[in-house]
Design a protein that fits this description.
Layout lengths: L1 H16 L16 H10 L16 H16 L3 H6 L7 H11 L14 H20 L9 H6 L3 H18 L5
Helix pairs in contact: 1-8, 3-8, 5-6, 6-8
């Protein structure tokens, strides 16, 4: 059921983004063994370091907020659009706090998208880029978004990164689904 939720969520996200995905895995996708994943998450450790997240430190609202911000990260490439992210409550500080919590997912294998380690780095780097653009204020330009295009090549790659994090979160903290 949870796998279906993630698959439907990812498909809906790709549909809303107006693009199709590829059958080729990206740097943020990998195959996984669900039996090992569940055991590592429940044991809170293992060779991969998975399951280190404290599930009580994240709420359903936090997970939804991450999902919304991650969607915007996939699409926002202008100063005006970035300033518009304030309408949904985005601040680089709030996203950094969410990412600090989600860093506990590193090493956790998701059922579909593998470990979110690279994806978390992508979102952290993007958030830092957005923070730097915000800090520039009126002197910010659309050219300041260039580093984001180098992180992930297209919207589908960003969505795969988002799905990787949410898939691992679903494995580590199944009560959030």
């Amino acid at each position: 059921m949870k796998t279906r939720f993630i698959a439907v969520f990812a498909a809906g996200t790709l549909l809303l983004a107006g693009c199709g995905g590829s059958d080729e895995p990206t740097g943020t996708q990998a195959a996984s063994d669900p039996d090992t994943t569940t055991a590592v998450a429940q044991e809170g450790g293992g060779d991969s370091g998975g399951g280190a997240i404290d599930c009580s430190s994240i709420t359903k609202e936090d997970a939804a907020t991450f999902a919304i911000y991650a969607q915007l990260f996939a699409q926002v490439r202008t100063v005006d659009a970035l300033m518009g992210m304030n309408a949904v409550g985005y601040t680089p500080e709030q996203m950094a706090a969410l990412l600090d919590t989600l860093d506990g997912l590193k090493g956790t294998e998701g059922e579909v998208y593998g470990k979110p380690d690279e994806a978390l780095v992508v979102f952290r780097t993007a958030n830092d880029t957005y923070a730097a653009i915000f800090a520039k204020g009126d002197s910010a330009t659309d050219a300041d978004f260039a580093p984001l295009n180098e992180l992930e090549p297209d919207v589908a790659a960003w969505i795969n990164a988002q799905a990787s994090v949410l898939d691992a979160l679903n494995q580590a903290c199944p009560d959030l689904a």
